[in-house]
Amino acid sequence: MTDPWQECMDLCVEVAHRAGKVIREALQEDIAVMEKSSPVDLVTKTDQAVEQLIISSIKAKYPSHSFIGEESVAAGEPSILTDNPTWIIDPVDGTTNFVHRFPFVSVSIGFTVNKEVEFGIVYSCVEDKMYTARRGKGAFCNGQPIKVSGQEDITKSLVLTEMGFKKDPVHFDTLMANIRSILSIPVHGIRSPGSAAVNMCLVACGSADAYYHIGIHCWDMAGGAAVVTEAGGVIMDISGGPFDVMSRRLIVASSKAIAERIAKEVTVFPCGRDDADS
Ligand code: LIP
């Protein structure tokens, strides 16, 4: 029996490669920077053009599918996840990195059916690393199998997190207090590469042992969720409950022990949901 979604995944990889080429070419030009929700929430014409390229290429073959794209939502489209086959797209994950030519910039695409992630791809296009994962069939980087570090001792772990955009006192003070709590365990270190999707893939390939974040979006997480899960990683809500791709928060880790310890240490602050207005 043919796998109905493999053809979609093959198209996804081909389109992501084309999108990555557009991003790399844009890095050679001047970059006009625009602001979204704040002076540190950036967007560029490349974000918008790449999302248009991805959605139009997929829609041409699958017109009945649904799409949730970061820049489409920013332009007023709803971000509602239904049972319909849905493509969840971040055209340039790590836009601030892109603007500064900091080399962690990725195209992130997750594909869901009945609200379950069937496959995910994250193309770290400056590094030219294509991470792919199909549900139940393993995770790969440029076609080579990848797996998490398997680290279970948090005192021997490298942890990733991000600073996000919100700088109001509640978010900022809690975010900094959480970093202090994690560092005080102690852990070997904390890093903030600046792309949620790349962060999840760094855990998936064993280059880091955990990543936690409150305040990102479904388009940052959907692609990497498949990659880290299929690489043998653990993915859960920041509270320790089940992961919810619309919840704007997550923990991924090399083991349940590390994920659960982070859930215990971190104080959660409210960040809304992607489907809150639906
Ligand atoms: C970014 C995330 C990053 C986070 C930023 C932003 P974008 O996504 O990948 O981890 O720190 O606040 O959310 O906006 O570049 O697609």
Please tell me about this protein's structure.
By secondary structure, the chain is α+β, with helices and mostly antiparallel strands. The protein folds into two domains: 142 residues, Fructose-1,6-Bisphosphatase, subunit A, domain 1 (Fructose-1,6-Bisphosphatase, Chain A, domain 1); 112 residues, D-Maltodextrin-Binding Protein, domain 2 (3-Layer(aba) Sandwich). 35% of the residues lie in helices and 23% in strands. The chain contains eight helices and 14 strands. The strands form three sheets. The protein has a seven-stranded mixed β-sheet with strand order 3-4-5-6-7-8-9, sandwiched between helices. The longest helix has 21 residues. The radius of gyration is 17 Å and the shape is globular. The termini are far apart. The model has no long low-confidence stretch (mean pLDDT 96). It binds L-MYO-inositol-1-phosphate (LIP). L-MYO-inositol-1-phosphate binds next to strand 4.
SSE layout:
Elements (H helix, E strand, L loop, with lengths): L5 H21 L6 E3 L6 E3 H17 L4 E4 H5 L11 E8 L1 H6 L5 E8 L2 E9 L4 E6 L4 E3 L2 E2 L12 E3 L8 H15 L5 E3 L4 H9 L5 E5 L3 H13 L3 E3 L12 E5 L2 H10 L13
Parallel strand pairs: 3-4, 10-11, 10-12
Antiparallel strand pairs: 1-2, 4-5, 5-6, 6-7, 7-8, 8-9, 12-14, 13-14
Helix pairs in contact: 1-2, 6-7
The structure holds L-MYO-inositol-1-phosphate.
